[in-house]
Amino acid sequence: MADNVRQRIVEAATRLFARKGYAGTSTREIVEAAGTTKPSLYYYFGDKEGLYTALVRDELDRLVHSFDLAEDLPLGTALERFCRHYVTFFQSDVSTIALTFRELFGLGEEAIQRMAQGYFDGLRQRVAQLIARGVTRGEVPPSVDPDYSALAILGILNIFLMRWILQGDAYDLSRVLTQIDALVRGWQIHPTG
């Protein structure tokens, strides 16, 4: 029963935050929509910011854990697969993702730091693992820094996603992937001779 209450709060908050934004949604509205009480919200999440942070973290954890590192694939193919999965994930649930990007910068530095540690670092590490594996296999030169390269790839993807979500700019996924592929091809070792 307790999980049901928590889940109802999560579902109600997701709908309300997506529709009205973080600042425009009150805890009273959330608990009324969830059919529960403020003490229940406080028990599970501490406060409205804790609830919001949990929503974003849960959604982004789902993304991080849904991606298979595809150990048998060449680096270029694995990264293309990751990028396609990443963009498709965000496109599949626009309300939750819009909630994430619209409100992220309005929560304050501490909340952003918590989300960055829980999500962005985890995601960066997964992409860096792919790239490090490519270095180990000789697919790219040792001069390629896996962490910085992962940040570059995620930066490219996130800029396109933020423009799409916040400004409605639609981008052709295949063109975005072509840009990532050009970056990866630039790393590859070219035979001499």
Automatic annotation (TrEMBL):
Q: Where is the HTH tetR-type domain?
A: 3-63
- Keyword DNA-binding belongs to the record: yes
Task: List residues annotated as DNA-binding.
Answer: 26-45
PROSITE patterns from the xrefs? HTH_TETR_2
Any idea which GO molecular function terms this record carries? DNA-binding transcription factor activity; transcription cis-regulatory region binding
Which keywords belong to this entry? DNA-binding, Plasmid, Transcription, Transcription regulation
Q: Which Pfam families match?
A: TetR_C_24 (PF17932), TetR_N (PF00440)
Ribosomal protein listed as a keyword: no
InterPro entries in the cross-refs = Homeodomain-like_sf, HTH-type_TetR-like_transc_reg, HTH_TetR, KstR2_TetR_C, Tet_transcr_reg_TetR-rel_C_sf
Give the GO biological process terms. negative regulation of DNA-templated transcription
Name the record gives this protein: Transcriptional regulator, TetR family
Query: What is the source species?
Result: Sulfobacillus acidophilus (strain ATCC 700253 / DSM 10332 / NAL)
